[in-house]
Amino acid sequence: MKICVLVKEVPDAAVQKKIDPSTGRMDRSGEKNLNPYDTHAIEAAMQLKESGAMAVDEVVAVTMGPDSAERALHKAVSLGADRSIHLADDSLAGSDVAATGYALSKVLEKEAPDLVLLGQQSDDGECYTIGAVVADHLEFPSLTQVIKIDVEGGTKLRAERQAEYGYDTVEINLPAVISVGDAINEPRYPSLKAIMGAKKKPLDKVSAADSGIDAAKVGGDNSAAQWTGSSEPPKKEAGRIIEDEDTAETVDQIVAWLDERKLI
Amino acid sequence: MANILVYALQYEGAFNKNSLGAVSEAAKLAAEIGGEAHAIVVGQGVSDDLAGTLGNYGATKVLNVEGPEGLAQPVVDAMAAAVAAGDYGYAIFGGGLLGFEVGAGLAARLDAGVAMEITAVRADGGKLVAERPILGDSAISQISFRSDVGIIISRLNAFEIKETGGTAAVESLSVEFSPFSGQATMITRGEQRGADVDIEGADVLIAGGRGLGAEEGFELCEALATAFGGNSAVAATRAVVDAGWFPYAGQIGQTGKTVAPKLYLAAGISGAIQHKVGMQGAENIVAINKDANAPIFEFSDLGIVGDLNKIMPKLTEAVKAKKGA
Question: What pTM was computed for the model?
Answer without folding.
Answer: 0.94
